[in-house]
Amino acid sequence: MSEDNRNLGAREFIGRRGGDVATLVESSVIAAVPEAKRAAEEARRELRFDFLDDRAVLELLRRRHVDEEDMFNAGFKHGVPLALVGFGAVTYWAGVAQYWETAAARNAYLAVAGAVLALEVFFFVRSAISQWGDPVRQNLRARAAKYRQIAHVARRGGADIPAHYPHYGPYPFAARFRPEVADREESESKGADDHGHR
Fold this sequence. Notes:
- The chain is mainly alpha-helical.
- 59% of the residues lie in helices and 3% in strands.
- It is built from 6 helices and 2 strands.
- It has helices at residues 3-6, 27-31, 34-47, 54-95, 103-132, 135-156, and strands at residues 12-14, 21-23.
- The termini are close together.
């Protein structure tokens, strides 16, 4: 669990990376709207998760925040060097290397710069795949996105739910539910059960 999540109250979670602390809406509020209750029950069968279990949902939302932090950190760690190296290589070529007298020197620069850029791209893509492509994380995102939809159904049905609850956007990518890994959620090696409890 991240440092941010350790300092939260009993029903609190962080709605988005670096965002304000939000409070969990009780499942009874959502279940009071028949359409939302139906949607939650259908989603439970589809995604193998109890969307009306407050404790499970709170853990889900807290893990979703950790997942978002991990994605941002991975992108920053490899994206920034890639951008800097790419910008530097292009700038140096435009201002210096292309004017070198011998074609061999220019070609050597292009080869070295290309190899360094290819290496940076490799690390960036590998990091992205490990974050976005991990099936356990995809299940987490699929469940978090579905919970958001259920909450919005409840709000449209008259429930007292904040406008942007749970205060983060849907996952347009990398949120496909994979039933073959649904029961190992966070990680078998970490000893978490399907709801992330230990």
